[in-house]
Amino acid sequence: MEEHSLSSSNKATKKASLVLDKDYVIAAVDERLYGSFIEHLGRAVYGGIYDPGNPNSDQNGFRRDVIEMVKKLNVSVVRYPGGNFVSGFNWEDSVGPREQRPKRLDLAWSTTEPNEFGLHEFCDWAKEAGSKAMYAVNLGTRGPDSARSVVEYANHRSGSFWSDLRRKNGAEEPFGIKLWCLGNEMDGPWQIGQKTAHEYGRAANETAKVMKWVDPSIEVVACGSSFHGMPTFGSWELEMLDQCYENVDYVSLHQYYTNPTNDLPNFLAKNIGMDAFIKTVASLCDAVGGKKHSKKKLNLSFDEWNVWYHSAEQDKQILKQNRWGQSLPLLEDVYNFEDALLVGGMLITLLRNSDRVKIACLAQLVNVIAPIMTSKASCWAQTIYWPFMHVSQYGRGTALRPVIKSPLYSSTDYDDVPFVDAAAVLAEDDSLCIFALNRSTENHIELSCDLRAFENLCLEEHIVLQHNDVKAVNSESEPYTVAPRTYHEYETDDGKFTLRVPALSWNVIRFSEQDTEKG
Ligand code: AHR
After folding, report:
1. How far away, in angstroms, is 83 Cα from ligand 1 center?
2. 143 CB neighbour count, 10 Å cutoff
3. Which atom of ligand 1 is the closest one to the Cα of 185?
4. What angle, 0 to 180 degrees and rounded to 10, lies between the N-to-C axes of helices 385-394 and 64-73?
5. What sign results for the dihedral spanned by CA atoms 322, 328, 334, 335?
6. 311 in ligand 1 pocket by Cβ < 6 Å?
7. Which atom of ligand 1 is nearest to the CA of 82?
8. For residue 77, which of 16, 134, 370, 477 is within the disulfide window of CB 3.0 to 4.6 Å?
9. Distance in angstroms (rounded) separating the CA atoms of residues 150 and 165
10. Which of 12, 1, 129 minimizes the C-alpha distance to 407?
């Protein structure tokens, strides 16, 4: 037995085990699982990714320091331009000479939109950031006509009114946007142009149809319920899919979690609710497909997910004082360590459901409920930046289903919650990564990983995100208060690795194939 000293601790040790095999395949992970979201809201665009004149910005006004941080997150797709914003947005306002673009009232967020940053700027920015665009069309105040026009503008090469206007506006090459959202949260009374499930299903069907007539290579996402707790959840999916099943490719899910009563064991179990939400929506899709005798299987786009609640009171005050202001600091949640743990848990859930969830967007990316924050002078990583970065970096390949045995607990809303939750991904180069969350507030856990089915694996790295204060945050002056560290304690015996997983911690355990030639 090779020992790297699993030192003893005063706190009681609990044990958990995990068995993995190459055959325990869930699915090939779609790289679009690591998407994010930029909405025209608060300081996401103006003062976030775009800040002309700032010494950190380039000639396009793009903040280079922010782009560098986005690149480290390896964000595959970025949803844009909303969100609630899109339901009152005229895409035509956002193209052409800047000085001629109109300023508009944004009724979704009670602010003023200057349209200085628009479709061309976004596509250029996404390219610089190494991401693909996912574009939402307005099904609130508009419909199929404006949707088919924007597809023609963005994707048709030339020789038509809208494509030639794009070329005139400086983009000879089409943008080639492959992924489109059919509106946003259309079931919600807060949405401009809210619809019933039947009304939305009809609109989504006709819109998807003509968008695909313009460009048959695109994929479209129909709006599912705004969140699991919507009173119409379930019936919304069934009724709207009844109208549009054959013309859409994905159904959206949105979910934000909160911890208003400071109930940590319950908060950390919330990704179990996310698992159930995903399974229910997949079943609803299959029920409609079954009823229609369809050969088609719909997949899911979890295109808004995160923790969101810290900024609620502050936002009320900001809007009270400055209704119709521009680039107000709205939705600027400051994330603490416990939020990062749940975000890790949500990433585990996404991987566990990667057979159905093909697209997911951490909402959002910069300043607005975001992993990246900016000031005029700098930018820094919030606590939630780290788990997203880890899974985006090491979670590409084939998702495997670990068989986990863990002690359990019960929380306010959930029974039989395993202290250890985990997911695993086998990369193309045969390296293996286990992502593990320890939800125990008291105990570190000795996690034994049985990897005998893999042969010749060696532990490459054990990265741990841990802090003794669950309310600890990162800030501009102290950006690394909550940051990952590497652990070196483990024992190994004949393909079994035992590691210490600290109480309340997020863990990334990376294995690579040992070079047997070298012994
Ligand atoms: O991400 C913030 C908002 O949350 C989005 O605009 C909306 O879609 C959701 O309600």
Report:
1. 5
2. 17
3. 8
4. 60
5. positive
6. no
7. 6
8. 134
9. 11
10. 12
Whole-angstrom distance, CA of residue 372 vs CA of residue 69: 8
Q: Whats the size of the chain, residue-wise? A: 519
Count of beta carbons in the 10 Å neighbourhood of residue 491? 17
CB atoms within 10 A of CB 384: 29
pTM of the model: 0.96
Q: Tell me if 29 sits within 8 A of 397, measured CB to CB.
A: yes
Show the domains of the chain with their CATH numbers. 2-24+399-518 (2.60.40.1180), 30-394 (3.20.20.80)
CA gap 474, 18 in Å, rounded: 32
Q: What is the pLDDT of residue 245?
A: 98
Long-range interactions of 200-204: CB distance < 8 A, separation 24+: 200/139, 200/240, 200/243, 201/239, 201/240, 201/241, 201/242, 201/243, 201/244, 202/243, 202/244, 203/139, 203/143, 203/144, 204/139, 204/240, 204/243, 204/244, 204/247, 204/248
In short, whether 333's Cβ falls inside 6 Å of ligand 1 is: no
* Site of tokens 């923790």: 307
Is-contact 179 218, C-beta < 8 A? yes
Tell me the catalytic residues: 185, 304
- Identity of residue 371: P
Provide the 3-class DSSP secondary structure of residue 341: helix
- Average pLDDT value for the chain: 96
Question: In ligand 1, which atom is closest to the CA atom of 84?
Answer: 6
Reported as a pLDDT band with limits 50, 70 and 90, residue 519 is very low
pLDDT tens sequence across 167-184: 999 999 999 999 999 999
Of 467, 436, 465, 413, nearest to 258 by C-alpha is 413
What is the enclosing helix (H) or strand (E) of 350? helix 337-352
Compute the distance between CA of residue 181 and CA of residue 135 in angstroms, rounded to an integer: 6
| Calpha distance 2→488 (Å, rounded) | 13
Distance, CA of 65 to CA of 384 (rounded, Å): 18
Q: Which helix (H) or strand (E) holds 381?
A: strand 379-381
Give pLDDT tens digits for 252-271. 999 999 999 999 999 999 99
